[in-house]
Amino acid sequence: MIFDEIKKGENKRLELKEKLPSNEKISRTVITELQRQRFNKSFDEEENFEFEFETLNLNIIYNEFKKINKPCNYEKSKNLKLIKDINGKNLPTNALLIALGSFDNTQIKCARFRGVTKEIFIDKKEFNDDLFSNLENSIKFLQNHLNLNAEVVGLQLQEELEIPLLALREALINAIIHRNYLRNSDIKVAVYDDIIEITSPGGFPNGLILEEVMSGRSEIRNKILANLFRELKYVETWGSGITKIKKLCKNKNIEFEINESSNFVNIVFHRPHKIPNSTEKMPNSTEKLLKLYTNEQEEKIITFIIKNKKINVDEVEELLNLKERRAREILSNLVKKDILEKIGKTKGSYYILNETKRLIQ
After folding, report:
1. What CATH architecture applies to the domain 277-360?
2. CATH number at 104-270
3. Cβ(194)–Cβ(271) below 8 Å
4. Sequential DSSP letters for 98-129
5. Which sign does the torsion angle of CA 118, 121, 123, 127 carry?
């Protein structure tokens, strides 16, 4: 019986080896991965001897469960296989270390580029906390750099992002759960004028092909991590994420695609091209101001002033979900460009467009 299992594992190793390019040497990492597959064990299941368990902050995990009113403690963490007891010693699994952001490659890098290439940065952020904070901050970054569309529903005006927020969230969660954490690369989120691209290290797991992925089939590369996200209600059922993204995008006529190349998976959302309603009846002088925009944050501020005649620091904080210091920096830059003018020097001060000063005096 044992010899049958060994033979089966050897056949699997040879089968996977044949899939590699003929000129590619099998590195120690590849061999180790083949051995994991032989025993049906994922990288995140393995215990890690390099980190001292006592130095880890498990409150990060416990607080995530508190958010959904579910208890979590040491025993629950062991049941989730985040912790292993080896000869009376507590050891973290790689899944726990990944979730806590203990590895160098668990960060998410976000960037907004001007135009459709990577030549000019408008904004960039690197989030290197725990996975849950990285996810939340990446979503906020996208919210700050995407346009809001307004639609009248019943008697009320409702605003939503040009790309469905739930679709973006599902794509980010998909990248976090299914990426290859053995690769020394980060998840990258890039916003261009025409597309949003979310890049995840590692190709499709276990020989999956694109057609199978698009049809909703899923293979779990990181079993413990995926189960943790399911327990925390970040995902409903395994394999439902791509189907949900497709449905959300179809309902809003958003083009969506997945590409696999060079051991990376790219999820691409095509941004809709249309002129915002707020600019349709703008005077020519205001249209000229639009050409001076350098990023979506400034555009949102100016659009707000066009509608409301003025804006103050508190309103900028709320509008862009920023802290006071950053809000003041953006407003100060717009003043330096002669786009805005500051009225007053006390707490009651506010900002207006230079050309609209005469309209509110």
Report:
1. Orthogonal Bundle (1.10)
2. 3.30.565.60
3. yes
4. HHHT-SGGG-EEEEEESTTSSSSEEEEEEE-S
5. positive
pLDDT digits (tens), the chain, 361 positions: 444 544 444 454 445 445 444 444 445 555 555 555 555 678 999 999 999 999 999 999 999 999 999 999 999 999 999 999 998 899 999 999 999 999 999 999 999 998 888 888 889 999 999 999 999 999 999 998 998 775 655 556 567 889 999 999 999 999 999 999 998 899 999 999 999 999 999 888 877 788 888 877 878 889 999 999 999 999 876 667 888 999 999 999 999 999 988 689 999 999 986 444 444 344 444 554 555 555 778 888 888 888 888 899 999 999 998 899 899 989 988 888 778 888 887 778 889 987 544 333 3
Q: Which residues pair with 200 in a beta bridge?
A: 265
Residue 8 carries which side chain, given as an amino acid letter? K
Contact by Cβ (8 Å): 207, 60: no
Take residue 332 and report the two structure tokens written for it. Answer: 């100060």
Contact 146, 296 (CB under 8 A): yes
Q: Could you give the CA distance from residue 102 to residue 51 in angstroms, rounded to a whole number?
A: 9
Say how many C-beta atoms besides its own lie within 10 A of residue 34's C-beta.
18
Domains of the chain, by residue range, sit at 1-41, 104-270, 277-360
Burial class for 291, CB neighbours closer than 10 Å (0-12, 13-18, 19+): exposed
